[in-house]
Fold this protein.
Amino acid sequence: MGVPMKNKLIFFLFFLFSCATLRGLRAPEAKPDWFVKTPSENGYLFFTGVKTGALSPEAGKREAVNDAFRHIAEYFSVSIKSEYTERKSTASCDFMSLLSAKSRAQIDKAYVDKTHITERCDPNLKKNIYDTFVLIKYPLDEIEKERKRIKLENEENVKRAKYYFERGRYHSDSVALVEGFQNFAIALKILEGTIGEDVLTNEIAGYAVKCLKRIKLNGYPCDPTGSAGTGLLNPLKIKVVYKVGDKEIAIAGMPLNFAFLEGGGILERQGLTNDSGLAECAVAGISNTGQENLVIAVLALNRVLNTANELVQTEAQKMQGLRHIFAFHSTGEPGDIKKQPMMVKISDFANLTGDVDLAWLEQALTDGIVNKLTRISNLHVVERGEDVLLEGSFQKNSGRVKINVRVIKSIDGSVVSVVVEEGEMDKIFEIEENVAIQIARLLKIKVAPDEMRSVKSRDTNNTEAYEAYNRALLEHKKGNHSQAVKMYKKALARDNKFADAYNNLGVCYYNINLLDDAISSYQKAKMIEPLNDAVTVNLATAYFKKGARVKALNLLEDYDSLGSPSVRVLLMTGVIYNRIAEYQKASEALERAIEIQPSAPAYNELGIVYDNRGQYDRAIIMYTGAVKLNPSFYQAFNNMAIAYMAKGEYEQALNPVNKSLALNYECGDTFNLMGLIFANQASYSKAIAAYKRAIHLSGSPQAYYNLSCIYALQNETDLALRFLDHAIDSGFNDINSVSAEPAFKNLISDKRFSELIEKIR
């Protein structure tokens, strides 16, 4: 199993103890004076925070610091997501306090000045709990710097938001309304962290809501009868239009979801309207006979108007009632049709205990249930486009754990049922298995005997290894590779046959470029599970990075020759052949992968193959296939834009770039790409703004270089040289590009340019 990367990146030290006083902690006493009356000192501001009733001193201090952060956020009038960590100094046993905040307010100059912790025994829990008070000291000059920075950022954000708002308005009364919605979403995303711009936010949201209210669905009559074997002769059809006065304008590219309300069979669950506003849904088979079948069609607005704005979300929820229902009968034998897999999405398990030390268990239960469900062939776990949403939560008390999973129909939000399992923590593996089996039964999914055996098989039977492994995953996600390595090794010390722990230990080593250690770990995992395709792909990746490409390809082809082809293995084979410019072999591997199971990554990689061969139209078709399968695959939209640019179609390239930004506004590469498009259109001021945004987000050497080129074209010599220097300092070392760059022809005689060339050398 690979490393899942979607859970919260927070780790807390875990202590178990009875009601006994720990050394260094105070007995219950009054609040400290500095908490009752905040101190004053020239050149500083002070902020206090408190957490009462924490289950450990570390957790108490963390929450108290977060409380103080909230007060700082109020001072700046911004929202702050904070991370607070403690680590022991190598020089002493004292705790060092490290503060950081990832948000619009950068408060890294603040530090913990005082801490006051008292302990008391909770008679109900029969254990010690802790009340923690902290005092944070913040230099005034740093506060003023931050105020100025936020003001400048606000002004830039407002400019960008207005730009996207105007683009959205331009498209709002046309067949390209979907593009308009995507621009509104980008504008609202920009304004989420902007201070004092509620009027503009409400104007954009209000305009988007006005557009939403004008959308209408027109369903077409369908064939009244189908057969179980062949389904309906003709597809279900629905038209999406936009009413402007008495006129109805077709909407292109609007996504819809289709699902059976009654009956069952094989549907194309998702569709996009064409330029005439028509979406079609083929019914390839029907699983019941002699009764009415009902299929519902609803708009998938979250895919085009991806925003957290409350006004827009409220209206979008109301529009769940905007739907069309198709009714038809069926004849024939129900056994003629194989049941279509059920698509399920699992949200992260919520910790209802209130004990932050159990963050590892949130991670463990989410991944554990996902792992079990993926072993059932008629259940597919997906990130979006789901039929059913599973919302899990757990409570732990006195060594027992209780799990609840709400099973929710995505099409209408109705709760089908709730799965409940409870038991001792040492039975956690059995509890996970029972939850997965209950979910399958509720969804009327038949589990074959071999699948049932697979669900009940375990990666480890050791609960200590299970806990250490999941603690390692949390550290892994934070990028704390050394701590993750330590915890993976602890898991393996408890169970030396734990293949997933060896695999993920290898991933850690790979990420810090210890390739020999990574290969050794992958090899140990493969010895335990020789048919684990994920391990095989990871080992091949490490071989390839080390330069042993023949060894990598032999490993993948040996696996493929075993007779059970793996989409993962074929995809990696295609990637390697693509990287070494053997495009025919790359195409063959990727086409086989798509034939077995169409996937967005395979279509995307095949698009890159065609791109590399100069077949840009075919590349665009592949990228379109990728985003059809995974509408949130923003990288495929970026690749599509690159293909359009290669054709010289810069205006067409902007459309996929904007779609990419609507999905991920924090991607520096996308802004760099946007800058290239504007630069080729000679829109230099827009290009400069895009490159600066790319630099702000990722510090990209390429964006620094591109910005230098723009300034050179505008004869801004000092700025061109300054940003070229930044590019080199950031890692740009392509001396041939610099020497041959036409934009730099006026810099050749400048001594500083020659010095920068030497700096690269």
About this structure: The chain has a mean pLDDT of 83. The two ends are 43 Å apart (CA to CA). Residues 161 and 190 are 6 Å apart (CA to CA). The first helix runs from residue 33 to 36.
